[in-house]
Amino acid sequence: LVPRLRPFTSTIFAEMTALAVRTDAINLGQGFPDTDGPAGMLEAAREALFGGANQYPPGPGRPELRAAIARHRARYGTHYDPDSEILVTAGATEAIAASLLALTQPGDEVLVIEPYYDSYAASVAMAGAERKVVPLVSDGGRFALDTEALRAAVTDRTRAILVNSPHNPTGTVFTRDELAAIARVCVDNDLIAITDEVYEHLVFDGGEHIPLATLPGMASRTVSISSAGKSFNCTGWKIGWVCATPELVAAVKAAKQFLTFVSGGPLQPAVAYALEHELDWVERLRLSLQHKRDRLSEGLRAAGFDVWPSAGTYFVCADVRPLGFRDAAELAWRLPETIGVAAVPVSVFTDNSEPWKHVLRFAFCKRDDVLEEAISRLHKLI
Ligand code: PMP
Ligand code: GLN
């Protein structure tokens, strides 16, 4: 294995899920739902499977899916031409990797907000670029962007910034002010923004997802990425997309077409159907996840953790120190065996692990009975 990929031989999700399976623990580590998406979407996939949609779809994605993505994106007031400004990818993961491969190169620095989703570091490394982290800081009960640190991190080698909101693992949803600070840095320094918006629909308490591309000066320099997995409970389908200017989409396509060329042929029309017809289902999902967020947060507090409020995503973060533990990673590796619950230590998503050493991430995207059982098991820690 080449040196630049040596830090990436395994993922926390693969390891923690394997441990959860081995110990028969409830898996609140890897974020995936344990119920299916809307029946109409599943039916549309079946019709496509039996209706002959089993060969290569067009390189940029099936036209009805690109049209549905454009209409969906128009909800934010952004308008993309389905033919030149939208590209379907193998999940957001490929979209992120292809964007970095197409737009960054050795010698470039990429700003990454810490803690960061694990694929970012690996994809920056595959592109041969260097990541430079900008921390979130615990501020008034939420994790906020350190905008001073953001400005200070820019050098004459900085080429791009990866922005994930709603944010995995903290559940932070960036405010308009935080996004405006990012936009200002991008415009002032001629940076490209690559936004990971896979949790765009999973924002709670009346909060709002604001795509960075909608801020002044950003439409021309933002590669907006999302996917179907989290909105429609189909994380295994890996249907994602990129929305950007024709120039940026053409660049990302150059990389994407030699990574997978195309993928998910019969699933593409089903996701098109879901984007067009199942947003009421997504709203019910959002409300149910908000309730699950409340229930798990309460349960963790009752079990002795300090819990940061989560404003979106599948995840809530908890401080293990009130229970007398110091090292959340060490605890995470023991929890499945000792009490039958798996979680992930947030330090694995960081370069500077110190401020995160005592933080665990729990996923609440599980059936209510599963969450209740997990909560009762967590009480054994007291
Ligand atoms: N970004 C974030 C922040 C995620 O949590 C995930 C994981 N589910 C992904 C990207 C990957 O998305 P996809 O499954 O569409 O590749
Ligand atoms: N996005 C999911 C999480 O953060 C996991 C995805 C994966 O297993 N790679 O838990």
From TrEMBL:
Its EC number is 2.6.1.17. PANTHER family: FI04487P. This is N-succinyldiaminopimelate aminotransferase. The keyword Transferase applies. Transmembrane segments: none annotated. GO terms for molecular function: kynurenine-oxoglutarate transaminase activity; pyridoxal phosphate binding; succinyldiaminopimelate transaminase activity. It comes from the Bacteria. Residues 24-378 form the Aminotransferase class I/classII large domain. Its cofactor is pyridoxal 5'-phosphate. It holds the Pfam family Aminotran_1_2. Keywords: Aminotransferase, Pyridoxal phosphate, Transferase. Belongs to the class-I pyridoxal-phosphate-dependent aminotransferase family. GO terms for cellular component: cytoplasm.
